[in-house]
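Incident log entry.

Two folding requests arrived from the same account within the same minute. Monitoring flagged them as a possible duplicate submission, but the sequences differ. Recording both here for audit purposes.

Request one:
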Amino acid sequence: MKKLESTLLNMVVVLVAVAVITSGLLAWINNVTEGPIRQQDELALANGIKEVMGTDKLTVTADEVVTREFDGKQLNFVVHKTADHKGKFLGAAVESTTMGFGGDLKVLVGFDAEGKVLGYTILQASETPGLGAKADKWFQADGKGSIIGKTAQKPLSVNKDGGDIDAITASTITSRAFLKAVNQAYSVYAGQDNSGSDANSGASVQKKEN
C-alpha cells in the first residue's frame, strides 16, 4: 500500500476520519449503556423512596414535578406520593436540590402525613470529599444533628443561625445547604393535597413522565 504523503490535506482527512469514527463509537456506547443506566437510576430511586419513608410496604401513587420559586429562582421538585396496601396515604418523598459548598446537593426527604421527617438520603453531592458522606449520616436518627421526627413548619436551621440543629463539624455551609433543601422540600410538600392537586397558588404541578 502506498504511504500517504505528509501534506496538510492528508492530515486533515485523517483527523476528520478519526473524529467521525470516534463519534460513532461514542454514540453506539451511549445507546447501549443508556437503558441499563436508566434502569439502575430508577431502581436506586425506588429503593431510596422506601428507605426515606421507612417501609418497603408501600405504593407510589403519583410522581409529580412541582415548580416553585425560592430566592428569586424557579426550581423543580419531584414529589413521590405514597400509600399503603389499603390505599391509605402515607406521605411523600420529595427530591430537592440546593447549592452546597462545592456544587449541587440533591436530597430525597420522606415526610409522613403530618409533615414530620421520616428519613432522607443524599442523591447527589458535589461537596469536598467526605462532607457528602458525613451529611448522609449526620442528620439521621442516630446522628448528632438528627432531623428525624421534626417538622420544617418553622424552617430548620443550625445553632449558629438560632436553630436547634447541630451543624456538621467544620462544615456549616454544607449543613445550611442540606437544611435549606429539607425546608424547601417541606414547603413544596405542605402545598400539596392527597389527590395530587396543588393548594399553593405560587406553584405549578405537572405529572412526571416515565
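Request two (distinct sequence, not a duplicate):
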Amino acid sequence: MSFNRKKRQLIILSVLFAIILLLIMICIIISFNKCSSDSADTADTAASSEPVVQTTTMPEKYIIDENVKVIKQDDLKAGCETYACTMLLNMLGFDLDEHTIADNYLNCQFVYMGEEEGGENYGPDLYSAFAGTAYGGWGVYAPSMAKSMNNYLKDRKSNLKAYNMENVPLEDLIDEYVSKGVPVMVWATTDMDEPYVFTTWIVNYVDENARTKLGDTFSWYMHEHCLVLIGYDSDSYYFADSTAGKISVFKKDLVKKRYEQMGQQSIVVK
C-alpha cells in the first residue's frame, strides 16, 4: 500500500509539473506575440505618418546683383519698356542694346492726332502695339511687349520665353521669382508719381491681346513707366530704373498702389 501511495504521488507531481511548464510556455508565447504586434503597429504608424516638411524662410533683404547694369534712358525718349526689356535680357546673359528691340521687334502703330480743333485722335490699343515708337511716342503694355520679346528669343533660338503675368500681386512676384534670382519687368509710374489721363484716342488697331474694340476710346496715363524689379527689404522694393539711370528704391505701399493703378502688369522670362 505504501508503494502504491508513493507512486500515485509521483504521478500527481509529474502532472502538476507538466501543467505548470505548459502554462509558462503559453505565457511566453503570448508575450512574444504582443511585442511583435506592438512593433508592427509602431512601424505602420511611422510609415503612414506624413513626412516633415522643411520650409525655407525668405531673407529679410535680397537684391539681384549678377549682371545688373542700369541703362540710362537717353536716346529712346519714350522707350522705358524697351530699356527695361533690354536690362532684363542682359541680366539673363543676352548680348543686346536697347536699339536691338526698338528697331527690330516692337510692333509700332502711330497715333494720328486730329489737326482741327476738336478733331479726333486715332491710335492702337496699348495691349496690342506700341503707340508711336520708342524714339517718340506713348508706350506699350505687357502683352504686346512680351510678344516682341518672344520674337527676339525665337530668333536667338533660346528655350526661354517671356510670360505676360496678369494681376499677380507684387508679393507673389517677389516670392516666386525675385527671391530666387529672377528679375521681373513691372509697370508702374516714373518716380512713383500719381498717374492721370493725359490724352485719349479712338482705337484703330487691335490684336488678340486687345482690351478694347475698334472704335472704342483708349486712355493714356501720364507718368506710365516700366522698371525691372530686382530686390526688396522689409520696407522697400528695388528697381533697375532707366529714367533715373540707377537702382531706385521705393516704399512698398507706394509701389503697390502705382502697380495696381497701371493694371498689375508684369513680364517674367523663364
